[in-house]
Structures are given as C-alpha cells and as structure tokens.
Amino acid sequence: MAKKASEDKILTSCGGTQQMIDLARKEGIPTVFDRAATMKPCPIGAEGSCCKNCGMGPCRVPPSKKEGEPAKVGLCGATAETISARNFALMVAAGSAAHSDHGRGVAEVFLLAAKGEIPGYGIKDEQKLIQLGLDFDLDVENMEMKELAIKVGELCVGQFGKQEGELVFVKRAPLKRQELWRKNNMVPRGIDREVVELMHRTHMGVDQDYKNITTQAARAALADGWGGAMIATELQDIMFGTPVPTTGYINLGVLEKDKVNIIVHGHEPLLSEMIVVACQDPEMHALAKEKGADGINLAGMCCTANEILMRHGIPIAGNFLQQELAIMTGVLDAMVVDVQCIMQAIQKTSESYHTEVITTSPKAKMEGAKHIQFEEHDPVNTAKQIVKAAIENYTNRKGKVNIPKVKEEMVVGFSHETINYLLGGTFRASYKPLNDNIIGGRIRGIAGVVGCNNARDVDDEVHLTLIRELIKNDVIVLTTGCVAMACGKAGLLVPEASKYCGTGLAEVCETVGIPPILHMGACVDNSRILIAATAVVKEGGLGDDISDLPAAGAAPAWMSEKAIAIGHYFVASGVYTLFGTTFPTTGSKKYTDYLFKDLEEEWGGKWDFEPDPLKMAKKMIDHIDKKRKALGIDKARERVLMDMEMRRELDAV
Questions:
Q1: Is 404 domain-assigned?
Q2: What is the pLDDT of residues 447-464, one digit of tens each?
Q3: Residue 51: enclosing H or E segment and its boundaries?
C-alpha cells in the first residue's frame, strides 16, 4: 500500500522519536504527529482575526484583499487591531495565570513547611532564604531561620493578593528599567490583580485601545516574570536546593525493561520531589522485587523532568511531543501527571498498553485516568501510594517491548548563582569575566532560547538549527524547558560541544569548562535569565538597562499561552524577542507593526516573528551587533600581553 504524503515527510530530528512514530503507524495508533498532518489550523484564528468574546460572534475580520476596500470590523465595531490585541492579551492572561498559580502553590506549601505543619520539606538553601529576607527588608540578622522562613512565606503568599503598591521583586530589575515601568504605568501591583484586570479589559465593550490593552498585558506578564514565576523558582530552590552542575541522561532509552518504570510529567516539583524520595524507600524496592522487577526506575518528562534532573540527576525520558511515545515502549508502568502540557491523548494511547495514567491535581483531571490526589499535608504517603500503584501494575505488562536504544549524556543545573560562582569562585563570584569577554569580543552576545515543541514544525530541528548557528557565531545560549531537552538529545549540553562554536566562544567555554549552551531549568525558571541579565547590567560596561545589552531572546517552536506571557515579559523587560512557527496577531498589520516596531521606542524591547531558524539567527545576531555598536564595542581589539611595567602603570592610575 502506498504511503500517505505525510508519512514521507521528515517529522523529527530525534532518532528515538522517529523510531516510535514508525511503530505507532505500524500499530495503527494515532499520535500528535499524525493529528498535525490531518488537522490544519484555522487560518483566521491563527492570525488573531477572530473574535468570540460575545454571543453576537464569532466575528471574522481578515485583512482586506483589495486595495481601498473598507476594513472589516466586528458587529460591535471592534477593529482588527482591537480584536488582535484582545486575543493576544487573553493568551498573556492565561499564561501568566498558569505560571503564577504554580508559584502560589509553591508559596503555600513553603509556608506550611516553615510552620512545621507538613513533613517531607525543609530548608536546603539558607543563603537564598536570607537573600529573600533582605529583598523583603526584614531584619535577618536578628531572626532565627524558622522565624525568617515563616515571614518570607507569608510575604510571598501576600504578593498574589496585593491590591496596591509594587511587587517586591520589581526592585531587582535595573534602576533604569524600573523608572521606565513606572513612567508607563506598567509596574505590577499584585499578581492576581493584574490578571483579573486584563481579563476584564478584554471583555466585550471594555478596553478598545490596542495600545492600552498591550500595556496592561505587559503589567500582567511582568507580574508573572518578576512575580509568580520568580517566587516559584526562588522558593523551590530554598526547599529543594539551588541547582548546581550535574550530569544526567535524556531520551526514551533511559527506560529499563526489567524495572518498574515511572514517569513524572508536568511542571510542579512539589509532588515529584516526594516521588524521588518514595522511589528510594526500601519498602517500595522490596515490593518491586516481590512483583518480579529488578527495582524502580524513575524518569521525568516535560518541565517536571528538568526540575528533578537539575537537583537529583534523575534522567529525562522526553519532551512535550514524546509523551505518547513513552507509553508505546510497553514498559511504562505509570505516567504521573500534574498540570500544564499534559495531552489528553495519553489516556487513549494507554488503553492499547498497560500504562496507568495517574492524575494528581484537583485542577487537572482526565476522563478515564486514575486519580490519586496530591495531599500537601501528607506528601510522602501520597507519593508512596502512587509508586505502589505503579509497582502493582508491573505484572500487567502485555505485548512487545520497544525501547529505542537512544540516550545522551548532558550537563545541567546552571542557575544564576552557579554561573556567578563558575566565573569568579567562592570569594570573587562575579559576572565580570563574562562582561569582559563580551566587551573584548570573544563572546559576541547572549541569546535566551526557550519554549516548547510544536507539532507544526520538524520536531527539535528548528531549535537545533538556530542554536548551532548562534554558537557558531560566538553567541552564548541560555536555555530552559523543552528547548533545553532538544539540545540534550543532540549532544549539545556537554563541554565538548565547544567544537561547534566560533573560536572566541570556544576559548571561553574551554577555559571555564562549561558547555556553550547553559541549561537553566524549567520554563518557570526563565526568571533566572532575567536575574542573570540584570547581573550583567549591574556588573558594568554594557549599558544601564537590559535593553542596552547585546542580547536577544527566541522561542522558535512555541505552542502554549505561557510562551506568549513569557515573551511579553521579556519584551517589557527590554529584550528583542522572536517567535517562530506562527504569531497570533498577523491578521492585523497595524497591531503587528506596533508590536514589531513601535514598542522598541517605548519599552526598549520588541516582538518579531520568523519561522526560518537561519533567518531568525541572522536577525538575532544583527540585533546583537547593533547593540555592540551602540555600546562602542563593535571594533575588534588587539590582544596585548602585558609585562610587569605595564601592570605597574595600571596600578598607579
């Protein structure tokens, strides 16, 4: 029988993924890759030109096809730019709510743990706790650690319901950026308040000025990046440990035939941390042996994977687009999910195998899946219950085992604190060596490449093409989320990857002993990139604001509302930010021009769209070069070997 056209198309650059796609088609099991081939996106909705915010619609307002033809408007008279801005803002609101609700859950558990009301959690990074106390202007010198933890927990929880004033982490940003936010009325007052107000403004008949909508969207996004997401990252580090470089493995080959295999999938590490503990329990291992298994093998998927990899070296089974494929290996005994990026399709796929899909959050249930609710007051027992369910399911395995023999080693865990230490050591921790190498030209600039996988693209390929082009041109890359996983699977998260770099970046990486692409964590940890960028500004020599830096950001294969929220808080923080695949405002030229051009004058950062990864790389490098020229560091400097006389002259100045 002849293949369908979609079956001949290259769908992924990952060998393990391709092997499982071929198996799925042979077995007649549909996957996200097949659904992407048969279901085309709505062209009007994809461009943000459809309004369904009231019962008179949906109203479709595509661009006029003939010159001079009157622009279409909705029944209420809403213009294309108003509709596009509202749709864009709704994505920002949902994305900000998702990350910030994650942060709220972490803050609530942190406070309960600080009070001693729940077992299993503690304080692993006292130094970071003290720093948060200083951020909140607490008298840390005269407070016991428990008292400090309780007070910090209360204040973090309070950030969500604040009605007036400013979020406390806003003052971490460069002073010039803070002044711009205040001037433009963009400073978040409280996390929940900004999301609620943005949702109100997008309601039919409320805010009808696309610029005004975009400003409030920025305030909600900043409430995420410099609020909810930053709270999540900081408190997770305090409770579970601030990541330091560690090695791990990635891809479907980390699953083991003769062991009980459990995958934790989602985004919140509160439960997964306890599952790590439960999987090490002798009682659980004895039960696994009793059922005929050689032990228990825990792996992660999506951003939960990044969390437990960074802190424990737990392997990653795969990224967003590999979740159905992991079930098809035939050895996955339980897929334990919490929130965000969980495909409903995994339950249908599991019905052809023995895998138990276990939901754990009251916010995210799934028809047909088993639900074991995470009880925050008794997290260890909840984790043991889940692990036991997986062990009991081991004896229900059926059919062939199909584990791709594909896995790669990687080095991860480059938190802001770690980078600071690696560059200067314990007593001289500083970003100065990084700044000096940027000023001197060995490093051309910095790129943040983050985001999701999207089945509309060749899986992983856009990420890898972009990043390889950047490091070849001496641009160091900071990465999080599923992009980081793509790099890991391709063997780019090891120091040896410096062989793909330009000579300047390669020299720096080989000297320090780091990969040219630094894995900084889960998608919620994009706040680490904000802190790192601010540290570069404060170190000096590269301008007074994030917008002055020779830096750019990209999400080449974004797919979630969280990505739009993240992109908008980077733009509002002064970063040139490009998205690939598609962009949700292109149906309105006027509004898109505002985001892609005019915002730079107002905020110092702007949006852009480029689906071709090589063209995206060129745009990013051109922007970096433009910033280098503005700083006066675009000219190559002759390297001079200084003798003692020259050094004495410097000391005398």
A1: no
A2: 999 999 999 999 999 999
A3: strand 50-51
